[in-house]
Write a structure and sequence with these properties.
387 residues, alpha/beta, Aspartate Aminotransferase, domain 1, Aspartate Aminotransferase, domain 2, seven-stranded mixed beta sheet, three-stranded antiparallel beta sheet, 12 helices, globular, binds glutamic acid
Length: 387
């Protein structure tokens, strides 16, 4: 008999965002019309100039092994981006290019955690944080956000203990779309500095904020403790380049050194031509980002208008990212059951709140074309009505 498989991986769940999306895409491939509001992935194509970037990269021979931490030219461009957009000063030595933000986060947890260390995670949270922390040997310490979906100061203070090593901040937030206020981030930063915590800030949705909302990275308020701040970002969302898998970590040189050790053994460099494309969009992709932002804002308004007609749900309108996190607890407490039936009966794919640590909720991504949003949200409303 084969030896029993029982390890860190057998104790975690597969990513539900990916699972639902894969199931929806399978149905679509079999010819079924599905309204796929599950995965957070812009539906439009990457900037057209990326085609030339790829050809240029190919002709330059960027088809070979590169440095595990990434091409110095891209890393340099990332330092410029961080200065320009966020007022953060970093050198090339402070940057690790990773296979998407996902690997940036995972490598970060591996680099900073010891067995049993706790990481504060605010709920609802993005599905992979908790599982990645567990994979790295740590323990997620879940802290509920306040009624406005911002990190709660009082609860945070109570949660910090002798095992607390780090905290993760994500604004604009996945799954809620909340953008944390300057004042709240400053208050948190003060507390984190006082307790000597590592602060990981996942800023991947920074460019997708709506109306007059202003984005702040908590890193801006932690300059006094720069050594303990890790900024995570990438090109997936703002530039509609999810499949390129280019993310990065900006952090203290020592941490980047540890990430280098890990990457040099586990993955090596990120795809060479993708890195050239990333460098190009960081340099000249602003116009594309602004166009995308405006499209998403219009879609957010469209979905909000349609959801207003649904009297059985509650939600706070998102200020950023591309998700509505909807309270369906009056209709059904079991979010997986709700989403399963919604997909079966109406062919509308959504992610159950339980994946984000909050039952009785469902996440709808509005990174989809308007006609699908219109038809799909109407179906969602009808489904809620008759449930
Ligand atoms: N981050 C996106 C989401 O939450 C993409 C899928 C994933 O990586 O989880 O839908």
């Amino acid at each position: 008999m084969a030896k029993k498989l029982d390890n860190r991986i057998t104790k975690i769940a597969a990513s539900q965002t990916i699972e639902v999306d894969t199931a929806a895409k399978k149905l679509i491939a079999s010819g079924v019309k599905v309204y796929n509001f599950s995965c957070g992935e812009p539906d439009f194509a990457a900037p057209a100039f990326v085609r030339q970037s790829l050809v240029k990269a190919f002709n330059q021979g960027k088809t070979k092994y590169g440095a595990s931490l990434g091409d110095p030219v891209l890393r340099e461009e990332i330092t410029r981006k961080l200065k320009r957009d966020n007022g953060l000063s970093y050198n090339v030595d402070n940057i690790a290019v990773t296979n998407g933000c996902k690997q940036a986060l995972y490598n970060t947890f591996c680099a900073i955690l010891n067995e049993g260390d706790e990481v504060i995670v605010y709920s609802p949270f993005w599905v992979s944080y908790t599982e990645q922390i567990k994979l790295a040997g740590g323990r997620p310490r879940i802290v509920r956000t306040d009624k406005n979906l911002e990190p709660d100061i009082q609860r945070t203070r109570q949660a910090i203990g002798s095992r607390t090593k780090a905290v993760i901040i994500n604004s604009a937030n996945n799954p809620t779309g909340m953008v944390y206020s300057r004042q709240r981030l400053q208050e948190l930063a003060k507390m984190f500095i006082q307790h000597d915590l590592y602060v990981i800030t996942d800023d991947v949705y920074e460019k997708l904020v709506y109306d007059n909302t202003k984005f702040y990275s908590i890193a801006q308020f932690m300059k006094a403790a720069k050594k303990r701040v890790l900024v995570i970002n990438g090109i997936s969302k703002a530039y509609a380049m999810t499949g390129f898998r280019v993310g990065y970590v900006a952090a203290d040189k020592e941490i980047i050194g540890l990430i280098n050790r890990l990457q040099s053994h586990s993955t090596g460099n990120v795809c060479g031509v993708a890195q050239v494309a990333a460098e190009d969009v960081l340099r000249r992709g602003d116009e594309f980002v602004e166009q995308g932002r405006q499209i998403f804002q219009k879609r957010r308004d469209l979905v909000a208008g349609l959801l207003k007609q649904n009297k059985r749900i509650k939600y706070i309108e998102p200020q950023g990212a591309f998700y509505f996190f909807i309270d369906i607890s009056e209709i059904e407490k079991d979010s997986s059951k709700f989403c399963q039936q919604l997909l079966e009966q109406e062919k509308v794919a959504t992610v159950p709140g339980v994946a984000f640590g909050q039952e009785g909720h469902v996440r709808i991504s509005f990174a989809n074309k308007e006609s699908d949003l219109r038809a799909g949200i109407k179906k969602f409303n009808l489904f809620c009505k008759r449930y």
